[in-house]
Write a structure and sequence with these properties.
By secondary structure, the chain is mostly helical. The protein is built from 16 helices and no strands. The chain has one domain. The longest helix has 36 residues.
Length: 346
């Protein structure tokens, strides 16, 4: 997921009043929810039909949590770096290096497994969504634009990365205007994100309003708008969510924003650790899940019983967490460090 990097806020060496330690636990819970949804209710055919599937579907709401965190962290990061239009290349390069290369590595794992499946079984991976690998598919996956060109994703979880990059571009264009007309731009930006829900275009238009609770928390933190204006904007986003049948998603988004605002220093060690590997978990759990299931279902018949399905769910989750930790250490962290060097003055 998502992908916003709040490490400068969760760093324990920062003064307490400047920290937002709750971000890592929130990211951890969101990533765990998405994985449970995919494994227990969606993509793994041998265990998807289980008694918990109806409840595990709620795990997909973790996506909205990721968007709220980005809505809070990204403008705060731009504020911290005193961002101007001259910094747009640096900002986008840092975000690209932080997000894209690890995603490419994970997608490559999925592609390799796809070819192994074709070689071994003569058919693509069931449920993967990969039906062709050609030049257009490769290019659209590299640019995270597969949705716009109707080509398959190598890892279908990457649709959220498309939205993240679109949000980065939009806020990079708007943010310098805050210095010119602070309150007008602040209100106008939120109304723009809310209004985008009424357009039929996919991706950011459909999900832009879920960034709003995080942005409103940023406004509150920087005292950009008074409380009455913030409440009115909250009411607007809730109303639009209701009109578009997104009430539950918006309630989760608003609850996430409220937690960031009211309990910024809340943390739990296990969830904090989960948050540090959350991006790796998000981008690797699909190939890891398919690989794990394809092997384990051939050596055991546990998936024939309800108890067995639930046990396999636990096993697959454990394998995914271990794989995410290894991926985080070996792949994600090096690119994370590299992104921090971009634009650094020598």
């Amino acid at each position: 997921m998502l992908p916003a990097d709040p490490s400068f806020l969760t760093n324990p060496n920062r003064p307490l009043q400047d920290r937002t330690a709750i971000l890592d636990p929130l990211r951890g819970i969101a990533a765990l929810g998405v994985v449970l949804f995919h494994f227990g209710a969606a993509i793994l055919p041998t265990i998807a039909n289980n008694p918990l599937a109806g409840s595990l579907v709620l795990g997909k709401l973790g996506v909205q949590v990721f968007f709220v965190i980005s809505g809070f962290v990204i403008p705060l990061a731009l504020h911290r770096m005193q961002y101007t239009y001259r910094d747009i290349g640096t900002f986008m390069a840092k975000r690209y290096v932080r997000i894209a290369p690890p995603a490419y590595v994970s997608a490559l794992i999925m592609v390799v497994f796809h070819f192994i499946s074709l070689w071994y079984k003569g058919t693509p991976i069931a449920g993967s969504g990969i039906y062709s690998i050609d030049v257009p598919t490769i290019l659209t996956n590299l640019t995270f634009t597969a949705m716009y060109w109707d080509t398959p994703w190598f890892n279908f979880a990457y649709w959220t990365l498309t939205i993240e990059f679109e949000f980065y571009i939009l806020i990079a264009l708007v943010f310098p205007l805050f210095r010119i007309h602070r309150q007008v731009t602040a209100i106008g930006f939120v109304l723009l994100l809310i209004g985008m829900r009424s357009f039929s275009l996919p991706m950011l238009c459909e999900h832009a309003m879920f960034f709003v609770p995080g942005i409103l928390v940023y406004y509150r933190r920087e005292q950009m708008l008074n409380d009455m204006t913030l409440l009115l904007l909250t009411g607007c986003v809730m109303l639009v969510g209701y009109l578009h049948d997104d009430t539950l998603q918006m309630l989760v988004a608003l609850a996430t924003g409220l937690l960031i605002l009211r309990a910024p220093n809340a943390q739990l060690r296990v969830l904090t650790w989960l948050g540090t590997i959350s991006y790796s978990l998000y981008i690797t759990h699909i190939p890891v899940g398919f690989v794990a299931e394809s092997g384990i279902k051939r050596i055991t018949d546990l998936h024939q019983t309800v108890a067995g399905k639930l046990l396999l769910l636990v096993v697959y989750m454990g394998i995914s967490l271990l794989a995410a930790w290894v991926f985080h250490r070996l792949v994600e962290l090096p690119f994370h460090r590299l992104s921090k060097t971009i634009g650094r003055k020598k």
